[in-house]
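Hey, resending since the last one bounced:
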Amino acid sequence: MTAPAFAVWTQEVQAEVERALDAFLPPAGAVPHKLHEAMRYTTLGGGKRVRPLLAYAAGALFGADAQALARVAGAVEMIHVYSLVHDDMPCMDDDALRRGKPTVHVAYDEATALLVGDTLQAQAFQVLADTDTAVVPPARLVQMVRLLAQAAGSAGMCGGQAIDLDSVGLALRREELERMHQLKTGAMLRVSVVLGALAGRDLNAQELQALDTYSAAIGLAFQVVDDVLDATADSATLGKTAGKDAADNKPTYVSILGLEPSRALAEQLRREAHDALAPFGDKAQRLRELADLIVQRKA
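The structure tokens again:
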């Protein structure tokens, strides 16, 4: 596929995900008004939608049903957005800017931000659990719900965030930093790929291993690039506060490896992601292009 074709596909998926999220979220006019308004404020109209894009690309590879894919994409994006809302709160990273606009606790208040995150997490599981079992068999759907819970919990994203908070000011070894990001960032990227695939059919061991290898590479690459951008881009480009990791004395790939070695590592991981998809041939082109997007992005 050519680059323009990929750009068109990306825009189409992002628009479909926006429509799905709008339908899955409670209307702003429903009681409690402020909570529902704040949920929509932070979820709609922004973000790269990397996790939904990965789900759609994997779903296309395995012939997933469009409605099932929309639910998978909506669920993983709600979990991601909830994590951002909580991550930005004063008790964690205390950030005032996200996706180019004030964070939820700034636009509303801290209590509302806490409830927005809580509610989005619950809503994500409801959205996924409501998948049509005529399309996704019940046993596989239970497996998908379980995988999402594991990726979002202490063995995944939340566990990585806990390690991150405990690591401020510490000189982590590279393998310790990698483990933290395998959980904090990598777990949700991996589950986005796997759930998108499972929305199509059951996976055999070889297919799952290939997707795991791909997901591990892009998950780590995503964080490496994030660290590079935090050190080199400005807040207007990023849509969030630039230079915050260094200001907060957080360990990053740039602080441990240096800027150019970090860039080289991201490129190495991009190649590993491509190599992992070799068994799928041309059918995995969208996943390859997403690996390129993750590594070559500017924001």
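The mean pLDDT is 93.

Sorry for the duplicate.
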